[in-house]
Amino acid sequence: MMRRLPTLWRRLRGTFRDEPCDAEFQAEIEEHIRLLADRYRRQGMTADAAVSAARRQFGNVALLTEDRRRLRTLPALESVWTDLTYAARGLRRNRAFAAAAVTTLALGIGVNTAIFSVCDAVLFKPLPYAEPHRIVTLWERMRGGSPGTVAPANFVDWRSASRSFSAMAAVSSPSFILGGQNESARLAGAAVSSNFFSLLGVRLALGRGFLEEEDQPGKNRVVVLSDSLWRDRFGSDRAIVGRVITLNDESYTVIGVAPAGFRFGSAAADFSSEQPGRRLGADRTQSSEAAAGYAPAARHRAARTRSHAAGGPGRARHRGGQSGAALSR
Amino acid sequence: MSKGRADLHKKSEILQGTLDLMILQTLQALGPLHGFGIARRLEQVSEHVLQLNEGTVYTSLLRLQDEGWIASAWGASENNRKAKFYSITRRGLKQLAKETEDWQRISGVIGRVLGLAGGRQP
Question: Comparing C-alpha atoms, which of A36, A34, A24, A37 is closest to residue A68?
C-alpha cells in the first residue's frame, strides 16, 4: 500500500500538468529509432530506407505515447472532470430542472440535518450527568392513565418511604421573569430541592450548590444561573456570586453558575431553590391532579434494576391512596 | 538452410506478460541497460524468432517502473550520448524469482500435457 502513494502522487501530477518527462520520453524513443536506422545503414541500406525500416521495427509510436499517458495519469479523474463539465453544461441549459434539483437536494439535506440534530440531542449525546442511566423522572399516573406531575405530598411520602432510590429531588417549572435595570426577560428555569445538583452529580462551574436549610421558607431566595444566562446577561462576570438579582419581583441571591453544556429537560435552565415544605402546605388541600406538582428526578440505587425500582413508587400508591406512578427517563 | 528460412517466416508472437519477465531477467543478468540495449539483447537471445515491435519494450519498461520493479537514471551511452538506463530493484528481483518459478511450473504442466497427447498417437 505504501508504495502506491508515490505512484498516485506521480499520476496526479501527470494528470494536472504535462511533465517535462514527456519530451525526455520522446527523445528516448527518437534515439532508439536513430540507433536502429544506423544499424540498417551499416548493413547497406540507403538513409531513407534505413529510417523507414527502423520505424517499422519500432512499431507504433503514437500508441506507445498513449500507453504512457494512460500509465502516467489517472484516467478516472479525467473522465470525472469531463462528466462534471458535461453536467454543468446540462444544468445551465435547463435552468428550471436545475432549480428543482437544487431545491430537492436542499430540502433533503435540511430535513436530514434537523432530524439528526434532534436525534443527536435526544438519543446519542449522553446526558450531562454522572451515571445518567441511573437517573429517572417519576410521574404519577392520572385517573385516565396518562402520566402527570407528582403532588408535593406524594413526593414527600415517596422520598421517605422508597428504598429503590438513593436520592429524590423535587423539580417544578414555574416561569421566571428576570427583572433588570433596563429590560426584563422571560427565562426557562426550574425550582428544585436542595439536593438537585448532588443527585445529578453536577459540579458547578462557579460558586456552590443549594444547602439543605435553603429548602426552608425565608432562606430559599437563592439561585444558580445557567452558563448561557451568565454569559449573555451578566457578561461572564466572575464576581456574580453573591449578587442579588430580581426574579418575579423578588430578590434572589446568586450562589453559583452551572457548567457549560448543563441542561435539564429541554432548555438550559436557571435554577432557584424550592422548598417542598411550603408548597406541601398549600397542596395538601388540593386534589392530586393539581397542576402545580413536581416531576421529581430520582437516582436509582446502583444494585437495583429499573423494573425493581418500579415497585417503589407502586407501594407508595397503596400507602398514599393516590393514582399510580410511572417511571420514565 | 531451409530450416532457418522456415524459422524466419514462423516468427512467434510474444506471449502477453512474458516480455516483462524477459526484461527483468535481462536487467538482472546484464545490469543497467538502456531501452535499445534491452531490445538488442532480446533479439540476440531469441535468435530472431520473436516478433518484437521494439516500442513494446518501452511499454513494458513503463509498466515495470510503475510497479516499482525497475528504476531508471540518466547516463551516457557507449557512443557518449545521453541515454536512460534501467536497472532492476530489490522488489524487482523478488518478483523475478516468483515469476520464474510460476513460469517453470506452468511450462512444466503444458509440457507434460503435450507429451501425453503425443504418446497416444499411433
Answer: A24
